[in-house]
Design brief:
Blueprint lengths: L1 H9 L14 H12 L10 E6 L2 H7 L8 H4 L2 E8 L4 H15 L7 H11 L4 H25 L3 E5 L4 H8 L6 E10 L17 H4 L4
Antiparallel strand pairs: 1-2, 2-4, 3-4
Helix pairs in contact: 2-7, 5-6
Cofactor: FMN
Keywords: Flavoprotein, FMN, NADP, Oxidoreductase
Protein name: Nitroreductase
Length: 210
């Protein structure tokens, strides 16, 4: 556990990536495994993880991420995109996955299915979208931690224009919205940000025991 905390202290939001260093495919797959294993409400994972590899598309996206160099210079760019609305199919598909994975007849899961539908289906589209977007941040946290554990650098990014990203990535027609980005690679030696002392609230200020 001490190594894990040391690695979290080592990580920072990398502002400049070394374009000559590429994250190994095997390591990147490990990071994606961590993302896919992320906890989510009811296990529904109401989002997709887009790995944007095409350099042309990344160049198109860059102006709508305030021109930040990480978009094009990092080894990988990931966009977490969430459902802006959903219907019972989201739950039905999850029930099918549970049935196949655990060898349980879908009929035996009907009660659980009905419970999820009773809680989620009455929600407005706006509330559904907010709920789904929250789930992406749990996955983002896992990506940041998994990468740090491999001594791979990341930068979580909210500094972008979702509507423009949605257009370029063709998300509107899929009822998807870009929630948050993360760039993955190796820090450049001249990225001064890596030398800044990490600033966090003390545990005494942050944590309250009741």
């Amino acid at each position: 556990m001490s190594n894990y905390i040391d690695n979290l202290n080592w990580r920072y939001a990398t502002k400049k990536f070394d374009t000559t260093k590429k994250v190994a495919k095997e390591d990147f797959e490990t990071i994606l495994d961590a993302a896919s294993l992320t906890a989510s409400s009811y296990g529904l994972q109401p989002y997709k993880i887009l790995v944007i590899e095409d350099p042309t598309i990344r160049e198109q996206l860059k102006p709508f991420a305030w021109g930040q160099s990480q978009i094009t210079d990092a080894s990988y760019l990931i966009a977490f995109v969430h459902h802006t609305t959903f219907n019972e199919e989201l739950i039905d598909n999850h029930i099918e996955d549970i049935s196949e994975t655990r060898g349980i007849p879908s009929e035996a899961l009907a009660g659980y299915s009905d419970f999820m539908k009773s809680k989620l289906m009455p929600l407005s589209d706006e509330t559904k979208a907010i709920w789904a977007a929250k789930q992406t941040y749990i996955a983002l946290g896992n990506v940041l931690s998994a990468a740090a554990d491999l001594k791979i650098d990341t930068c979580p990014m909210e500094g972008f224009e979702p509507a423009e990203f949605n257009k370029i990535l063709g998300l509107d027609a899929q009822n998807l919205n870009t929630s948050v980005l993360v760039t993955i690679g190796y820090r450049a030696e001249d990225d001064d940000t890596q030398h800044y002392k990490k600033v966090r609230k003390s545990k005494e200020k942050l944590i309250q025991y009741i």
